[in-house]
Design brief:
Length: 197
């Protein structure tokens, strides 16, 4: 049995104060009631591998049928929302090719589900070989082929890629990612629901 020592209350106070000071300096959280130092453990956030949908150009890039050289199409990274595809502004997704209508199609993206509506475009919208009628709405599966009026220059395949790969492809192609705040210009009679039935 160990001998007991009497320690005055002022010494006890000094010891607990020094202990608390040392705990603060070393980053510990001191509990004066229990006289023990507890260490707050921070956990690193879990890394979640998520996927994105990308329209990857698959046309041969020929512009002979147009006559003038045009920019080659770039991959289009899709985010959730409703976006208008067209040749120029104010379209949210711009494909600057003369055979793409100024208001060509509407894309609805939600929970890895993509629906396309043709907006009565001049050269039509084709999904897996099926031409959409004006204002026809169709769900597009991953791996599907989509043509916005020009099978040489505006032909795409819907792919699913990991976030890092999608961002890397966008940077390599110098294509800015589609903004969450993109303005949407759509006819009033087309609703925002994603149900393609």
């Amino acid at each position: 049995m160990l001998p007991r020592f009497n320690v005055s209350s002022s010494v006890q106070h000094r010891l607990s104060t020094n202990f608390a000071r040392q705990a603060r300096i070393s980053g510990h959280n001191h509990s004066s009631k229990r006289g023990v130092a507890t260490v707050a453990v921070s956990r690193a956030p879990a890394v979640v591998a998520s996927c994105r949908l990308v329209l990857r150009p698959t046309g041969n890039g020929s512009f002979e049928h147009i006559g003038d050289e045009v920019p080659q199409p770039q991959p289009i990274i899709l985010k959730e929302g409703v976006f208008e595809v067209g040749r120029a502004s104010p379209a949210d997704i711009q494909i600057p090719i003369p055979t793409v209508s100024s208001r060509h199609a509407l894309l609805r993206v939600e929970d890895n589900k993509v629906c396309i509506t043709d907006l009565n475009s001049t050269n039509g919208t084709v999904v897996n070989g099926q031409e959409l009628g004006p204002l026809d709405n169709i769900e597009v599966e991953v791996g599907a082929e989509v043509i916005f009026g020009d099978h040489f220059l505006a032909k795409y395949q819907l792919d699913e890629v990991h976030d890092g790969i999608a961002e890397q492809q966008a940077q390599q192609q110098q294509q800015p990612e589609l903004s969450d705040q993109a303005s949407v210009h759509k006819p009033a009679h087309i609703n925002n629901t994603v149900d393609c039935s």
